Amino acid sequence: MRFLLPLLLCMCPYLAVTAQNADPDPGWQIHTEDRTDYTGIALANGRIGLLSSAEPLQIQHVVLNNVYDVDSHTLVSQVLHGMNFGNIDLYIDGEPISSENITNWSQTMDMQRAALTTSFDVEGKATIHYTVYALRNIPYSGYFDVAVEAREDIDLRVVGKIMTPEEYQLPEQSFEVLRDVETTMPILQSKALSPFGKHLVAAGGTFIWHAINSSREDERPELTHRIVSPYENTLEWEMRLPRGEQLEFAWTGAQCTSKDFADPKSEADRMIIYNLLNDRDVLIDRHEAAWADLWRGDIEIEGDPQFQLDVRLALYHLYAFGRGDSDLSIAPMGLSLQTPYNGHIFWDTELWMFPPLLLFNQDIARSLVNYRSDRLGKAVQRARNYGYRGAMFPWESDDTGEEATPPFALTGPFEHHITADIAIAFWNYFRVTKDKQWLREKGYPVIRAAADFWVSRVTANADGTYSIKNVVGANEFAPNVDDNAFTNGAAITALDYAVRAARELGEVPDPQWERVGTGIRILRMADGTTKEHAAYDGAIIKQADVNLLSYPLEVVTDSAAILRDLRYYEPKISPEGPAMGKSIFAILYARMGDTDNAFRLFKESYVPNSQPPFGALSEVATSNYSYFATGAGGMLQTVLFGFGGLQLTDAGITQGPTALPAQWTSLTLKGIGPERKTYVIEE
Questions:
Q1: CATH fold of 375-573, please?
Q2: Which of 234, 318, 438, 561 is deepest in the core (most CB within 10 A)?
């Protein structure tokens, strides 16, 4: 179907719609001209994620936060890849633009603006720039700002698309021109049921012409709607672009589901209309203002530009994957991928991502802990189902709060330390914010229930001590063991924090909490080295386990004992282990003043996992799944709690001894805590 609409065209000398005219800031922008071996990074706003692509005018997929359906392979819940509204087909003189007929391709990721700009030339006929945004201010929508500069007279054809995944059910494709008074609002519309029918998903898209020069206002391009297939809905237009002139336009899309909206189609339409009828500068300025507020919490490294970029990219992704107004958590791969791990929430959030966010952005940190408190009822039910008291949180969590681990994985029934990890994060949130109302209403009920679980979970020994039997610890290479060091240490810490939380609120703590907490065994080898579990025989381990007792738990605090454990377990780490493992070793060496070993392990914790061309982190060096937010959390903790000397205490955030790497001239930590303090570490 073809429609004539009064849309304003901008024909003007080149006015960049990208950051290309601005002087690049080497501390904020990552630039590449290499499309080989390409691993994308996420443009995300805490609700949707768009994974970048090396293909011109394309994104790989859209991830919908907290919207789950069933994975057809594992038959457990999986976060949805939504309808892809982020691809544009562009034809010049009838020839489609592809990676085969472009030159001078480059991409620049501007982390400060959360904007990815791509530029390329097309056979000497045109130069194209486009910038992709996952709008922080309109969190269910994306914005694709495009400029086409004609090097000679060209015929231009542009196709905006919504691609529905083929596993979706009952897809419906349509196009509607809404009218109010004299305003016309064309919207491409797609809706379908998610693969197993759990949610209605609706997406919309439209073109926006940036009207700057009014000399061509009388031009009225024809919009053509075409349903290519039940899974591909398109809207296109054509025009002649004279040599030396430039056309600026945008394609904007929005996506809503019945998870968040009673009428997702209408809400997606409204968001498209909002973007259509707002000035580009207003939309982008508000997006950038939201990111400027996030970047009040920042890390500045002087002396090594590459480390500055790497650290900022890690912090960027944690900000991009979270929202302070969502009460949602962050999965290990954030909003970059559906797999691995199905978009489920693990201990990765509380132990690895949460501490840096707690320092920099208490709003996002509050969402992470509220995600758990909102699902306390299901954790209580799960404990009861397994014969325990209190709350037993699932190893893998989704929107329901029930266990989402595939049944074949032993971690689901036995990796119980997560219940302690959650309680520890809750007390740390109170330590930093001193929000007693939150503690009373949301925090303490979770901490108390976790403590009750551990009292019911332990086994009394004849000597008056307690064991925790048959668990999977942080080292998942050793399943179904007794007295795992980290599990026992986390339980000890959670029980101690429950006592402190009760007293903070003027309540009398259950005496069993202290009795059990002080009686849980931490096993030792003959030379005093902490023993990872009762049957440990020196085997290779997947990741740090024992050493977590020194940081972050502070159960093992004697310097000689910390060093002994470090020297024993560092050589035991498997090269196939996840990126964050060596971060713990780096932090501990930094706190002991051994900056050389700390910096060595800091690099080993992430550099092998950095994938070209942007340095996106994968979980292990041999994969290219991006972006591993857990690894980002470990990397940032090394900088903050190791080199920067920061500590979480009952007095709030304090600073102990620092350890500046010799390769850096200074380290500045900005926006720390509710008071937004700045810490400067210099030579």
A1: Glycosyltransferase (1.50.10)
A2: 318
Largest interatomic CA distance in the chain: 91
Rounded Cα distance, 175 and 203, in Å: 11
CA distance 464 to 537: 26
Tell which CATH classification among 2.70.98.40, 3.20.20.390, 3.40.50.1580, 3.30.390.30 matches the domain 2-20+27-294: 2.70.98.40
| Cα–Cα distance, 384 to 378 (Å, whole number) | 10
Q: In whole angstroms, how large is the CA radius of gyration of the chain?
A: 27
CA distance 583 to 366: 24
Return d(Cα 137, Cα 612) in angstroms, integer: 30
Question: Which residues are designated catalytic?
Answer: 476, 619
Query: DSSP assignment of 317-344, as one string?
Result: HHHHH--TTS-----TTTTT-S-SGGG-
Q: Reply yes or no: is the peptide bond before residue 340 cis, omega within 30 of 0.
A: yes
The residue ranges of every structural domain in the chain are 2-20+27-294, 295-345+575-683, 375-573
- Dump pLDDT digits (tens) for 1-48: 444 443 433 333 333 344 334 456 789 999 999 999 999 999 999 999
Tokens of 126: 């045109």
Alpha-carbon gap, residue 610 to 615, rounded angstroms: 4
* 375-573 shares the fold of 2-20+27-294: no
* Number of neighbours of residue 214 by Cβ within 10 angstroms: 11
Q: Is the pTM of this model over 0.70?
A: yes
Low-confidence ranges of the chain (pLDDT < 70): 1-24, 211-220
Name the strands in the sheet holding 59-70, side by side, starting at the edge strand that comes first in the sequence. Answer: 42-44, 48-52, 59-70, 77-81
CA distances from 515 to 156, 404, 470, 518 (A): 76, 33, 21, 6
**How far apart are alpha carbons 631 and 620 in whole angstroms?**
9
- Rounded Cα distance, 342 and 335, in Å: 11
pLDDT tens digits along 350-367: 999 999 999 999 999 999
What gap in Å lies between CA 20 and CA 228, rounded to an integer?
35
In this structure, the number of other CB atoms found within 10 A of the CB of residue 523 comes to 18
